[in-house]
Amino acid sequence: xxxxxxxxxxxxxxxxxxxxxxxxxxxxxxxxxxxxxxxxxxxxxxxxxxxxxxxxxxxxxxxxxxxxxxxxxxxxxxxxxxxxxxxxxxxxxxxxxxxxxxxxxxxxxxxxxxxxxxxxxxxxxxxxxxxxxxxxxxxxxxxxxxxxxxxxxxxxxxxxxxxxxxxxxxxxxxxxxxxxxxxxxxxxxxxxxxxxxxxxxxxxxxxxxxxxxxxxxxxxxxxxxxxxxxxxxxxxxxxxxxxxxxxxxxxxxxxxxxxxxxx
Length: 263
Hints:
Arc Repressor Mutant, subunit A; about 50% helix; about 20% strand
């Protein structure tokens, strides 16, 4: 096929994909995804503001999601929240995803060996998402649940996932989404973050302290799974139980062994 024919075929395929795109579905999903950015209940005006939809359009989408069982409305306040039907979708994903099936047994071994929180995460744009979290006794409910999305700057797993980015990409990401200071000691200045990510790229691991929770120490490495995808495997505990030296001596070798078993 000539280069001109290839270009024409690609252009036609692109136009076809755009033709198949259903904009109304995208707008409807904005309403559901608003609850991911601000967990809890939301009012109709808040939803309209968060999604960029007009109030009447937001009302129609809300009514539809209520009828389908994905949203419920408080009888007194009239505020809306997700129902357990959203959890059913998440369960189907977690149960059927081959990545979860491959990695989960190795994470369970780490958790049972050390009794610490172990997690699996991947990158979503400028953020990282926990796909699987095996808790320790110290974790709060929010920290135990999979699906939590955080800025990739904010913790060990996210910073490892950023090691594949060029410096100019990281600078642009910082401009779009500056880091959130979860604690008084969260690292938020760009030069320090760039240096830490560069060091993590060289070492193959990263250790963080006090980043999302005070007195918490976390460690993460990258692992390449059989599909070729890169994920982060991390562990977290308290500084009362593990010093950085102990993390290096005990946890990092165990994480590398787990990563090697996934290839």
